[in-house]
Write a structure and sequence with these properties.
Layout: E1 10-13, H1 16-22, E2 27-33, E3 45-47, E4 53-54, H2 56-66, E5 69-72, H3 75-82, E6 91-93
Parallel strand pairs: 5-6
Antiparallel strand pairs: 1-2, 1-5, 2-3, 3-4
Length: 99
């Protein structure tokens, strides 16, 4: 797992068939930042490349309806940014820098 001082890496991953049906990439990098108005208590937020916010409700909808998951080298940061509890399904640990 990456150290707390490294830039976290987070990816929203959609099942291949669903991504193709929706015209979306299978794997989208998410940016974690505390420099956003919705970031509270330095927990940060997760943003798509277009600047759109991914929140916990949005993630749960994607997970439950499409089968999406998040791959992260710092899953606790992802969970904090989404406002979700540590036992939330769908957040997968990856090695630092894995793609």
């Amino acid at each position: 797992m990456a150290g707390n001082d490294s830039t976290p890496r987070h990816y929203l991953v959609l099942p291949k068939e669903r991504a193709a049906m929706l015209g979306l990439p299978e794997r989208q990098e998410l940016t974690w930042t505390t420099e956003h108005p919705c970031s509270h208590y330095r927990l940060g937020v997760l943003l798509f490349t277009d600047g759109e916010l991914l929140d916990g409700a949005g993630f749960r909808e994607l997970r439950d309806n499409i089968g999406a998951h998040i791959e992260s080298d710092q899953p606790l940061k992802a969970l904090g940014a989404l406002g979700l509890p540590p036992e939330e399904p769908g957040i997968v640990q990856i090695k630092d820098g894995a793609q």
